[in-house]
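RETRY 2/3 - previous attempt timed out on the joint model. Re-submitting the same 691-residue input unchanged.
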Amino acid sequence: MKEIAKAYDPKATEDRIYKLWEESGFFNPDKLPFQPAHGKLVKKFVTCIAPPNITGELHMGHALELTLQDIIVRLKRMQGYKTLWLPGTDHAGIAAQNVVEKQLAKEGLTRHDLGREKFLERMWQWKEKYGGIILEQLKKLGLSVDWTRLKFTMDLDYQQAVKAAFRHYWDKGWIYQGERVINWCPRCASSISDLEVNYVPEKGKLYFIKYGPFTLATARPETKLGDTALAVHPDDKRYHAYIGKELEIESVDNTLPADQPPQKKPIRILVVADEAVNPEFGTGIIKVTPAHDLTDFEISERHHLSLLKVIGEDGRMNENAGRRYQGLKTSQAREKIVTDLESLGLLEKTEEYEHNVGRCERCNSVIEPLPSKQWFLKMKELARLARQALDNGQVRINPARWEGPYREWLSKVRDWNVSRQLWWGHKIPIEGEEDVLDTWFSSALWPFAILGWPDQAELDYQDYYPTDFITSDRGILFLWQVRMIFSGLELTGQVPFKNIYIHATVLTKAGKRMSKSLGTGVDPIKLIEKYGTDALRFGLASQAAGLQDLRFGEDLMVMGKKFANKLWNISRYVLTKLGPDYDWRLENPNSEIVEKINQLAKQTAIKIEEYEFASAANAVYHFIWHEVADQYLEESKNKDDQGTKNTLAYLLLTSLKLLHPFMPFVTEEIYTNFLPDWSGKKLLIVENWPG
RNA sequence: GCGCGUUUAGCUCAGUGGCAGAGCAACCGCCCUACACGCGGUGGGUCGUAGGUUCGAAUCCUACAGCGCGCACCA
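RETRY 2/3 succeeded.
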């Protein structure tokens, strides 16, 4: 028997043990010592690594998510399931491109200076470097993923999947090109998704402008130049007489040069009735600027109004704004037109006002809604499929409270703008088309694209699709999970996974969001260096209770570290007590505490499967520490009979198994390196789950 | 505006109808040959507020408040 150190040392252990697992091949389900002949279901797990962030480092949210997933994966493997967890990275279109563009900016360059080809080379270099760092960090977390199947969303075979999916939608007639109002980021020079716009409250002004007989309130007077109608609520009696009429009103003459004094100009404008107008707000009448407001655009579609684009994709007023305003930034144009209206007596008053301004999630620029020629995917049928999957129980969301938002999102979803004016991504597979697809279009194919789809004869696809489970942060339920569900249903005829677990959000001790830019981020790798991976994993799991967000403090790490050490010393004691000649080939001994730990094993498995991680972790902690160590071990000190020895051996072995999903390193280290060899001993990672 | 979550010991949180719990922190005593990353012990809570249901409420219902979040609006 080897000499066992007095304290557990994660640093001397973790990398060595991880290598042992990798060399064993057991992360690969096809190489497991058991194959599914023994009648159990083939069980699969598939996940994607969330897109790398700016620095390419994992954050605490990843650490929690991946730990919980690995707990389930390891449990399932020990239960004898053929278990696959396939690692990979996402090319993260706009986010990744922005990072590299920022790098370039430091060198005084833009992507246009490099040209498309050179720029993409830079992107690939960046991907190799930071994608690689992320993958190393996954190993540090101890994740039991199958590295032989590593995927990237721009691998060649993945590109084939993207093309096949696009082709499928195209053949169905669901892809169309349209000049529609979308969220435009002038800095990224691309359309962005509704979900990537952050609305932040900002102080602004509300301008009350005279429109003939009415006074209208607007926060964006410069869009007045793009007005094509006025709108009131159909039930608003105040304005019944005007509905359907075309009014002649005074406006500002935008054809004059900027340096001349402003003059009035008569314009004609139609009044329409539309439900979208809130009669309570302001004067109950709105100006309709279809080109630069999403709501207005929808009103214009209902009433077949024309669309006048006055703001260009560079965020400046264009030729339609008239030569008086052309070329000005929207903020400058706003000042100018307010001054003009004021001197013409068309501005009634100005009020201070707090409203929400849409900003680009990636670069914080103010979003300009504007009409743009983009590719769209019709969502009606896809949304129906996704809703149906939840209704008929094909897919379950846990905690169930997320079902409401899921349904709500689907009921309101607009057609999906799938084109992006970026360089980094999947090119839209249409002749002569320069744009790329929204990152989420390819991410939506992940569970089946990684298994060989569209080639349905592919063995992995046949063996491992559909998958069973995915876990995720709440933030990407709509961006990702919903889209995987409808893509899976439409393209493969099956839900891509049966269960979604939405885990808690990791907050700072003060209850704030963890964010690198706010300086409230915590680096899990640093915690691992300080406390060990097992401590981090156990600390997180012991607080992962589902509904409640997790306020993170290092005391959790302390608890985990102490517990790993406690287990280590329980092992030292038991091994010393049993001595080198003890015969480990034994059946379950009969005793009360053996009954109890077997029960605990059953309960623990059930709790993990029901995502009761904290409850599972704490029950195991309490039992091992207080019942096994404080009571049984203490009592055993005065005993020397065979029954006690057998019980001690069984308790140790079972404790290692129970804790292995939570604390894989210390348990495997004790099992493989300190337990004597006996027939039937293998790696703990593929030991059978007790009970 | 609509909705969701949350409020329990100094801190972070379990506990979902039957005597208030854990970890950390605090205090007292212990290096007892597995572990001082430990052992034994102590103190500490009107379970957010008000009402209701019940033999019995931290737990179920209603209202209110604080904190957090989602969706919508954002003219």
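The two ends of chain A are 28 Å apart (CA to CA). Closing ticket.
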